[in-house]
Design brief:
By secondary structure, the chain is an alpha+beta fold. Helices cover 30% and strands 24% of the residues.
Length: 129
């Protein structure tokens, strides 16, 4: 089943979106460990959008697509906010985002920052269970 959510880039609307997301995960009978993993990843993504990408434009819309089936939960966040300065990650040692995530016994997390067409940024979490 696929669900679509959207909200403005404000803390109150993001909080409401997260409540709706958790309600859907419960209705879909997604296990508590997966619910927790999805909630943490999506909360972090939404906070980054609100606090960084759209900090000066709280009236802009954030879109969230959620797909749940028998073997996976897929989340897609999209916004039209600003990318990282120069589209470059900060100096340091970037994490390998395509390895198995620490603490998950099954599944993985993949985070993409894709400022492609329309400067849309995506956070994707794929968790197989």
């Amino acid at each position: 089943m696929t669900y679509q959510f959207s909200c403005r880039a404000t803390e109150i609307e993001v909080r409401d979106l997260m409540r709706r997301l958790v309600d859907v995960l419960r209705e879909e009978k997604v296990g508590e460990d997966v619910q927790s993993s999805v909630t943490i990843a999506v909360t972090e993504g939404l906070n980054n959008i609100v606090e960084h990408a759209l900090i000066a434009r709280p009236q802009e819309i954030i879109d969230l697509a959620l797909s749940v089936d028998a073997v996976q939960v897929f989340v897609l966040l999209q916004d039209g906010g600003d990318a990282m300065p120069g589209c470059q990650a900060p100096v340091g040692h970037p994490a390998d985002l395509f390895c198995r995530a620490h603490g998950f016994t099954r599944g993985w997390v993949r985070l993409d920052n894709d400022p492609g067409v329309g400067r849309s940024h995506r956070l994707q979490q794929v968790k197989r269970y």
